[in-house]
Amino acid sequence: MRLSILDQSPISTNQTSYDALNGSMKLAQAGEVLGYTRYWIAEHHDLPGLACSSPEVMLSYIGANTNRIRIGSGAVLLPHYRPYKVAEVFNTLATLFPKRIDIGIGRAPGGSAEATNALSNNYLQKVWNLPALVKDLLHFINDDFPRDHEYSKISASPIPENPPVPWLLGTSKKSALLAAENGMPYAFGHFMSDNDGVAIIREYIDAFKPRKEEQTPQVIVTVSAICGETTEKAEEIAASFLIWTLQKEKGEGKYGVPSIKEAMQYKLTEKEKESLEKIRQNMIIGNPHEMKQKLFELQTKYRADEIMINTITYSLTDRIQSYKLIAKEVF
């Protein structure tokens, strides 16, 4: 099984944004040593507790401090940007870090309505126009616009010997079919979806249209997971993330991921207990043996080529240890 890392660069209550971003670099380094296939970092805007608003900047930093692991965006939020500029940025990264760059594409706003308005005009119109934006981005990356196209005379320089690999990220049939139509690999966000992911992946595979003869459907399924030496330890570590998720839903949690002690002292209402159970349904929490079993079950269920793991804990040590325990058990 191939395993990868999705990092949202969380800020804990005892941290600064610098601590969180530097911790992301250390996580990528650990992932490389442990044998993870790729490391992706997410894009968020003005969301308390999440430090990365610019994946491309972080990928430069992380690429310079790693050697082999594939690195990419999970995702760059395309409706905010012009495809030409996105292609230039990721072509530059692919030139600096050959055969290592992925460009994950998403359509979510990644922040509040106010942040969205500050980033781009007519965001909803651009979401509606996402299929055209994706096609333009692919043409810029592959430098293959038709001769009669308005952009045929320009290139997204520099042109790397090995272009960045584009992935479409999503949680819906619509995103899956868009990926299939364009012959793109697809990453399904199991950890943030209530939709029937199995049916969505099946439709993607059935509808896949390769851009080149050698292309075949590729599927990553992203799951939220926390592993501890024992099930009890994993549950204890996971408390911080679970309570923080509840706090964010209530408009709280602006100071970041609470400590385990703070999480344990949080007084839950009956409604919050129900919410916690719903959150846990999309997570895997357990010891290494339990984790391996559930990850393989998930891979089989989705017919996934790869599982990408998102882990948020209060302590960076616990977060890296979680990935380490999983790698030791699975690889």
UniProtKB/TrEMBL annotation:
It comes from the Bacteria. It holds the Pfam family Bac_luciferase. GO terms for cellular component: cytosol. GO terms for molecular function: oxidoreductase activity, acting on paired donors, with incorporation or reduction of molecular oxygen. CDD domains: Flavin_utilizing_monoxygenases (cd00347). SUPFAM superfamilies: Bacterial luciferase-like. Residues 1-299 form the Luciferase-like domain. PANTHER family: LUCIFERASE-LIKE MONOOXYGENASE (PTHR30137). To bacterial alkanal monooxygenase alpha and beta chains. This is LLM class flavin-dependent oxidoreductase. It comes from Cytobacillus depressus.
